[in-house]
Amino acid sequence: MTDTPAAALAALRAETQRPTLRERRALLAALAREVLRRAEDFAAAADADYGGRSTVETLVADVLLVAQAARRARRWLWWWAMPRPVLAPFPFQPALAWVEPVPKGVVGVMAPWNYPIQLGLWPLAEAIAAGNRVVLKPSEHTPRTAALLAEVVAAALGPRMARVVQGDAAVAADFAAQPWDHLVFTGGTGIGRAVMRAAAENLTPLTLELGGKCPVLVLPGADLPRAARAILAGKAVNAGQTCVAPDTVLLVGHTAEAFAAACRAAAVPVETAVAPAQRIRQAALAKEGEALPGGIVLVADDSAEELFGPALALRAVPDLAAAIGWVRARPAPLALYLFGASRAEAAAVAAGTRAGALVEERCVEHAAFTALPFGGVGASGFGRYHGRAGFESFSDLRGRVRHGPFALARMFDPPRSARVRKLARQLLR
């Protein structure tokens, strides 16, 4: 039996001693070791939860990424945690001013089912690096993986630093309503809104990682067979059940028929099953579209919802301006992909659109860059983590000032003479 969200929060909040940098580094090293030690167990658990998940995808996209993120945070922690000097304005000199990152307290992490290990333990690792304690709520749709996460967290970090709460949607709602010092949620936009409403009652700061219809712009300069293969490779990862998976391909200077032919020739296989929670919806999409060799389905671009599976929508547009207009007319996505763009075209897309990331010539892989801030904008979420961005998101950047014995600004202390009042007006000029 696991803790309730409230009990887990209370237990960790009772631990008032902040971990030192040396202790944090030891915890991060222990987390990386334990995750790698249980790698095959994670692969087996995810395979059972999905009813068929690629071992390679679990080992690389979930397990290895978490170990790399924890090790990188450990390696850079001394630098990230250093106080940073700030120049005091001349009228207040002599004075010393600096910014110091301090832990927020207890961070709650709500992880989804699609990458249950990576999206649970990566933010957990960076919250630990920032000196916080963490409560993790894995998805109820991956129960075997959730149970294993509880074992790994207990073995690597111990109950005084981190805890795992398991349970259904009611437990998740209770979790979101707790007065965390910071809350991380990864999932769909609709549930993200509910989480944000619950967090608002406690003014809990949030990191929301959502998704959206991540578009791909295939421009006239693109090598169509190469672009098709790269797009399908990104869509095939985890059977398209990835928040940054390509969703809709906007073809500029290419026909949908030519792109579909390039996709047939590429024949990129899908090695992971559609998760049980998605099967009915994906089966309906499969009936409407063309199944490619390997399992990805091409469908018409007529869905306002994120496809979130092995389906790819196609739409031919007359020019780059029309493609940019299509993107601007919809909620900002977590990622926007470009193929065959000149520097001028890439600059036009960057200036004319909003997205969490703008990536050229490949899809999805940027999410594995451990030093690149990751997050959305608008409907695809807000807040950033990965690397230093995560350390700072889970820290309060506290200002510190040490004043000297005198300063020009002291002449404005009351009582103020007529000369000082005249000087104030002169300064405004």
UniProtKB/TrEMBL annotation:
Which part of the chain is the Aldehyde dehydrogenase domain? 7-267, 304-397
Q: Which top-rank group of organisms is this from?
A: Bacteria
Keyword list (alphabetical) reads: NAD, Oxidoreductase
Cited InterPro entries:
Ald_DH/histidinol_DH, Ald_DH_C, Ald_DH_CS_CYS, Ald_DH_N, Aldehyde_DH_dom, Aldehyde_DH_NAD(P)
Give the residues annotated as active site: E209, C243
* GO CC list: cytoplasm
Lyase among keywords = no
Q: Name one GO molecular function term.
A: aldehyde dehydrogenase (NAD+) activity
A Gene Ontology BP annotation from the UniProt entry? aldehyde metabolic process
* Gene3D superfamilies per UniProt: Aldehyde Dehydrogenase, Chain A, domain 1, Aldehyde Dehydrogenase, Chain A, domain 2
Q: Where is the signal peptide, in residue numbers?
A: none
Entry similarity comment: Belongs to the aldehyde dehydrogenase family.
Annotated protein name in UniProt: Aldehyde dehydrogenase
Provenance organism: Teichococcus aestuarii
